[in-house]
Every structure is written in C-alpha cells, then in structure tokens.
Amino acid sequence: MENRRVAFALLAIAPCFGASYRFGALWDGNKLQKSVCLTVQADKIQNVGPCDGHAIDLSGYTAIPGLIDVHTHLTYVLDNPVNQSARSAAVVFLARENARKTLETGVTTARDLGATGYADIAMRDLINKGLMAGPRMFVAGYGLQITRGSTPTPNTADGVAEVMRVVRQQVAAGADWIKMYGSTGSGRDVTGFETFTYEEMKAAVDAAHALGKRIAIHSYGPEGARNAVRAGTDSLEHATDMDDETIAEMARRKIFYVPTIDHNRYYADNYKLLKYPDDSVAGLNAFIQRNLETARKAFRAGVRFAMGSDAVYTMFGENTRELGWFVKAGMTPEQALRTATTDAADLLDRKDSLGALGPGYLADVVAVEGNPLDDIDVVINKVRWVMKGGQVMVDKTK
User: Fold this and answer.
1) Is residue 376 domain-shared with residue 326, that is, in the same domain?
2) Both 249 and 216 in a single domain?
3) What CA–CA distance (Å, rounded) separates 376 from 340?
4) Reported confidence tier of residue 17, pLDDT bands at 50, 70, 90
5) Domain that holds residue 254
6) What pLDDT score does 10 carry?
C-alpha cells in the first residue's frame, strides 16, 4: 500500500509534454473511433486522429474523457484523531486519501458541495498549485441552512436579507458555486421537510446569479424541489417523489437533476461502520426505490441529468456507481456516460474545456478495459489509466 501511494504521488507531479498515445478505441463525447492516437501538448489535447508515428501503446484500452462527479464532499473524513480544538486544521491533510481514491475512479473534476472552515477552498487551491494530487475542484464553501439549535453557524440564514448576506459571504470567500439546503434529509435521515421558503430560495438564486455564480439546491422531498425549480436553481440535488408538473418545469427550464441514488446504498451497506441503528436500513432502501422511480420519470420527461455521487467518508473510490443506477432508470450506457462527461461539463459551464476529447480541451483522459458503450460496468470497474491536465495520475496497465 505504501509503495502504491509513493508511486501515485510521483505520477501526480510527472507531466507528459508533447506525448502521443495510441488507443484501440476512443469515445470523444460524441462518437466512437477505432485505432486512434491522441496527442497532448502541456495540459491540452493537441490532436485526435490517425496514428502516424511513435506513440505510447495503450491499444488494449478505450479512451474516454475524464469523468466529472458533480456532487462530492471531499473534506468529509470519518476518523479525525486530533483533539477537538485542532480538528479542522487536520481535515485537508486527511482528505488527501479521498482525493486519491476519487482520481482512481477516473474522476478528474469534482463539484464539492459544502464544507466547514472553507477547507474545500484550501483543497481546491492546493490541487490547482500542484501541491496536492486530486481532481480539479469547483467548490461551494458553506452550504446555506436555516437555524439549527441555539448557536448560529457561518452558514445560518433566516429570511431573505440573511440569505443574500450568506450567499455574498461565500462568493467573497472564494466559492465557485452556491449550495443551499432546501429540505431536511442527510445520512440516515431520509425525511424531506422543506426548510427555506420559496422567497428565500429565490433570493439565493438571484444573489448568486447577480455575482456570476450558479447554485445547487438540496431537497430530498417534493415541496422543496418544487420551490427550488420555481426559483430557478441551476441544479437540483437528490429530489424524490417530484410531481409531473415540477418535472415538466425542470425540463422546460433545462435545470439539471442530480439524483445521487447510490449514496443511500452506501449508507445502507455501511450502516454499522457509520453507527446507524439497524432499523435505518429499511428506510434507506425504500428511499432508494423512490429516488430511482423519480429518476425514471424525469429521464422520460427529458430532464437533463448530471452524475453526482454525494461521496463522503469511505465512499470515495465508488464515485461512478451512480452510472449503474442511471442505466436502471432507462438510459443507454452512452447516455449515462454523457451525464459524467459532456452534460456535467455543461452544468459546470466548462463545456468548451472539459467533458470531451478534442483539440484545445484539457487533457483529461481515462483508459478503460472494454467498450463503455456496450456495458457501463466498464466505466465503473475497469478504469486502468487516468490523465489529468496532461499528467498521468493513475497507471494500472502494467
């Protein structure tokens, strides 16, 4: 294990300039090409086309764009052994393992939706400066919540004026996105009681957009989802049991749905590790089925999807299992793959630089064993090689 970590760290700082790679097949985000070479110059793709000279041989693999996970919590660690007064200072150090495991799934970009102490901003900046190996991060700082208990926290916002203040505070701190918790529901809690009002959600959306930022609103239940959609959120996280009118409005407004079906599977599988009571598993499994059925309805209605794992604690390394649920919801493997590439890049407003393989795009490339357009499991379980920004981060081809 220690040797693997050392090798990973070395790979993460070893750039590949002006290199060409031969793949047996390449899916560029639109079409599949056979026997093709991809040339990288610095951190960008220079060319994709026929092989006409020496190239590093990856002909046993299919190349796909670097994957994008649009809902993570990379700074959530299960065990923090330092004393209470210094726990937050240790978070970014401990979260390195979450970043490493995420890269090994082929996820080269992540939207991180909520952290305390602005640990996500610190982590993003360390990764961008090459001081930490991890996916490219788009972060939200503190997620807005209504008052919980008697002591306000930096993300507490009650009323329109407070909502606007806290949104502006996150942007001033350096957040790329705004996150708002529009209902109860998290971990073993699968309730979905609306928290913020429509007026408060609209204030958050308007304040974020006025400052050039997009917003993600969390709602487990249908009421919060309905008002988030009415308010004009850019993405809706988790929502279950949405009515037909809300789903139709999402499709009309082109709002992205990030159902995060698999994260409750993770909670159910690991309830003992997480110290959840035995009776929590039935509720989690029931929510999964309702979540899946809502996703089916939304997909049939033409709603846009993006893949989000909601990975926390020890779930990193399982980020792409959500794609399997999308296929169960009715997508073809290629449609599911787009939710983690071209469509996710569109949600991030980076469709000209991420989510596809072509000249001028960032050199985020994943090599998988098999044909991902025939079987989505190829993407989930058969990642063998990962490049991010022209640097080989993971190599399991030997």
Assistant:
1) no
2) yes
3) 12
4) low
5) 67-347
6) 43
CATH of residue 202's domain is 3.20.20.140
Q: Is residue 292 a contact partner of residue 325, using CB atoms and an 8 Å limit? A: yes
DSSP states along 97-151:
HHHHHHHHTTEEEEEE---STTHHHHHHHHHHTTSS---EEEE-SSPBB---SSS
Q: How far apart are CA 279 and CA 284, in angstroms?
A: 9
| Residue pLDDT, tens place only, 29-79 | 999 999 999 999 999 999 999 998 899 999 999 999 999 999 999 999 999
Report the alpha-carbon angle 192-256-303, nearest 5. 95
How far is C-alpha 246 from the chain's CA centre? Answer: 24
Q: How far is CA 68 from CA 106, 126, 157, 201, 252, in A?
A: 8, 19, 30, 26, 24
Q: What is the CATH number of the domain that holds 361?
A: 2.30.40.10
Clarify whether residues 259 and 189 are in a common domain.
yes
Looking at residue 183, what DSSP letter applies?
B
Number of Cβ within a 10 Å radius of residue 351: 16
- Cα 202 off chain centre by: 24
Q: Are residues 234 and 172 in the same domain?
A: yes
Same domain assignment for residues 170 and 61:
no
**CB-CB contact of 362 with 33 (8 Å):** no
